[in-house]
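Hey,
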Amino acid sequence: MIQEQTPLYRPSIKLFFILFFTTGAILSGLLTFFYQKETRDLTHFIKIQESYGLELRKKRISSIFKDIKADIFFLRDQNELRQYLRTEKKQQLTLMGQEYISLAKSTRMYDQIRYIDKQGMEILRVNFNQGEPLIVPDDQLQSKADRYYYKECVSLKKDEVFVSPFDLNVEHGTVEQPFKPMIRLCTPVFDNHGTERGVLVLNFLGQDILTSLLSIERVSLGQTMLVNNQGYWLRHPDPAYEWGFMFQDKADVSLAIQSPEVWKEIQSSAKEQIGTPEGLYSFNTVLPMLDEAEPSQYASPAKGTIGQYRWHLISFLPQQKIDQKSHAIFMQFLILGAVLFILTAIGSWSMAYAVTKRKIAQNRLKTMAYFDTLTNLPNRRHFFDRLEEAVSHGNRYNNTLALMYVDLDGFKNINDSLGHDAGDTLLQHVAYCLRKTCRKSDTVSRLGGDEFAILIPEVASQEDIATIAAKIIAILSQPITINNAQAQVGASIGITLFPADGDEVSQLLSNADSAMYLAKSQGKNQYLFFSDTQPPKN
């Protein structure tokens, strides 16, 4: 029997090697192709992710300054101040002080809130006092006529806001310990006759900005940095590199000195990505004193000095991390190749496995590009695509649609008191509530942070939308238990209708955002239609 089988054994070996090397050559070509494409996709995805993360941070900073602007204009227009300007009665100052204390307690954003008269004398000052705000006695009020921010502010027009540089608070010529990052914002105060009577000054605790950068850090892979116009770090993963311009012995601790070529590229472009041997630098420029929607409402301290207030958001991804991800892909393909070569007898199955694996990888990239990883809701990009489609459909078939802009009230307090993990749990709960409240045909999206948007196509009546908004506020206002602690938030909702309020996507978004901020400024935890914010037509 062995002798009869021997002639069959030898040609089988020959055919085995022919099939093995032929299949091996085909598999080697296919695996090389897919590996190179996967590597390119990885590089492309990393760049998109880093850019997106910087955009979120930039919008977060812009949102903080919008909140500050809303606060300072609210104080400027408060009835108590208007009454004081008419009567100059001490009673009105007391009422103003109570408002200042309330704002300082609720926001925890301001180290000082002051009203200074036209001669530069402090008339009213409230100090944050480590979370227990108090009114400073009259005998401790000071003249600020010689301070730069007062001099700049008294020369501004109505509705303009002066923003100081971002630095550390200095007391008696020495940097305060622990560090207290500070930005001063002020706006002139005019009476009902148009006469300038003084200025309002908010000493903003800039740590909120630096903390917010960390809160969004999970969006990207890189290390988040904030650099001023001179190349000094305002925020760095290593605190020892921060605030170099405030200390003589750290004058050379700056990006401009330590990485001059990178700094030169950053200065030459508003936003870009730079590949270096050390890693990938992604950056975006922030002009904190300029509101992109209303640039005239912020003022630089002098003409031609806007550059002094330019910040640069930077995300640095070390090459080692990029190499680790590339190596992980390489190992995946190496293992896959070994398995496929071993299983040449069932090559068709092995090929199907490779194709399926690639399809899963592509779907994973697509899911990460279009859906929020925390809430599994459509992200900003996906929502904008659906909104574009809905507006196009509405124009074609004369349908009415509604856009809701939902911003949580009190979410920051949850993060501060219970931690960011609790905040994430709360955001997931909010996403569940919004999906539960809305119809399947509606699109619920998380735009970033604690901001959500809802697209409601084929609206029957404004009353229906009001009912939905009221339900959302009611369900989100209910307390929930997170980590054995009670947590409760509210929601401010801005609503705009298509085509009554506009027929462009950008206009609808702006309208809904405007209505939301007005609802928030009017007391929070309420909804407001954009049409209700507009003066009646003649």
